[in-house]
């Protein structure tokens, strides 16, 4: 799978960390949250460094559809149901600030952004109630949403709710501009530098990496699912994988950003190019490592797109990973209650372009002593989190099931010959659960035990990776860490 946004992108490679350094704040992760936070802190006069394990934008942000919208599917009613409209109002205020800041940045740095409506639509009659509920709750908090009976699109719909003047961008173009902007402020961005350890020492926080150490007064962990997760955020997040595809379509492409109210998710937007508009279609999501066949999920999405857009020619297909908070609201703030030297940002539930920038505004405000008026809505240790305990119990019961079933299967699986090309399986070598795969005509053998919390990994047949069904850690066939809360690779056998 290839990331569509990187096809023609010109982003300079940046060097890894070469020596031990000391700064005011170290930011871990060079996506929308990390780079926006770094820029805001640098603008306030702080000395900042950014650590990125791979390349700028290579994980969540660079894989997104980059919809900048305050109408977010049916998130409004989910938040209001759990927390009430007063909390939803502050969540909307945060997202509006994120939208405004990001669009102002794009305008100031010549990054193209298209102002288009966002629409949540009903795929069938059973989703009409959700459309009505989203309309009513968004109107209740002051958004000028409109209820639609009909949509002018090629596929069946049963009405929708629309919010005008939202936006869409090329996320890699945004990240390239952010990286250049932070470097112009004297911030060092170190790529291919994986943070591996964190400890407090002499009044500072020391982050160890595979290339050296960074000492700082404060740390921002902006890595999707937080690494160094002493606050147990992994137990309050559900890791979700979804799929995206870009098509050259002979007919008209919808001009609005669209997303379905129900499952399976269907998300659409257009991307203007010099030769016409490209159709982007996303959806068919699932919890990481918990489906029979990821390739089947991809096929379902491609079949849907080619059914309703006849003659569509596939240009690229790729995938993205997002984290859904069990309490419905993102977590932005201290890693542990009562401490301020390590901050985290996670749980954007696929709406990271607005929430991610809002998180950066909240983090920078907290670090500089100028908090945002709505920042408490993201507080990770808010009293309202008690209400999420039932959802957390359900999510972690599923984790326990996958932990036990994975080990039972691994213990009973006997070794076989080399898997076929593109295939992988878990088997037992002596007393060790072992992951065996063949990719690019090379058979690799690594431990099947995820170093995070010892779950047994599963083969992802769409992306040819090892995925942990417990909390979403993912590994290349050779065991290299790709993403998730884990910081160590699968050992080779």
Automatic annotation (TrEMBL):
Keywords of the record, alphabetical order, are:
2Fe-2S, Iron, Iron-sulfur, Metal-binding
InterPro entries, from UniProt? FAD-dep_OxRdtase (IPR006076), FAD/NAD-bd_sf (IPR036188), Rieske_2Fe-2S (IPR017941), Rieske_2Fe-2S_sf (IPR036922)
Per its UniProt record, what PROSITE patterns does this chain match?
RIESKE
Rieske domain: which residues? 405-493
Q: In the record, what terms sit under GO molecular function?
A: 2 iron, 2 sulfur cluster binding; metal ion binding; monooxygenase activity; oxidoreductase activity, acting on paired donors, with incorporation or reduction of molecular oxygen
- Can the keyword Iron be found in this entry's annotation? yes
Report the GO terms under cellular component.
cytoplasm
The UniProt entry, under Pfam families, shows:
DAO, Rieske
State the protein's name: FAD-dependent oxidoreductase
Its organism's taxonomic lineage begins at: Bacteria, Bacillati, Actinomycetota, Actinomycetes, Mycobacteriales
